[in-house]
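Annex B.
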Amino acid sequence: MSRRPRKDVPAQGAGHPTVSVCRGCCCGTEKIPGVDHAAQLARLRSGLEGAATVRAVECLDACEQGNVIVVQPSAEGRRAGGRPVWLGLVNDEHAEQDIVTWAAAGGPGIADAPDILDLYVFKPSRRVSAGLDG
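(2Fe-2S) ferredoxin domain-containing protein: predicted structure tokens.
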């Protein structure tokens, strides 16, 4: 596990949520079989174009939960109490679509996540989450 520099962090005041898609050592690779990882990222980007920032990030050090996606609130969502939501085992198109629907509606602090996403939520260690929770 390595320390990641804080890069590509959304600017303060960003008007949209940010969806960070892990594409490190395990997520996004053949270590998670049966998933078209490139298509997953493309579907998220296409579905959220203009509504959220979607970015592929280095390993988020939560490999046992691969594929990991973190939905970070917009500045407005953060002011309303929203915090990053870590989702693990996102390996099917239905979960992807639920993430798209939620983030497009405003994401954490603005819109309630579809109930089904509760099954994917996990809490990473403080050390791991510190890189994105900023």
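The first strand starts at residue 18 and ends at 22. The chain has four helices and four strands. Further annotation is deferred to the next reporting cycle.
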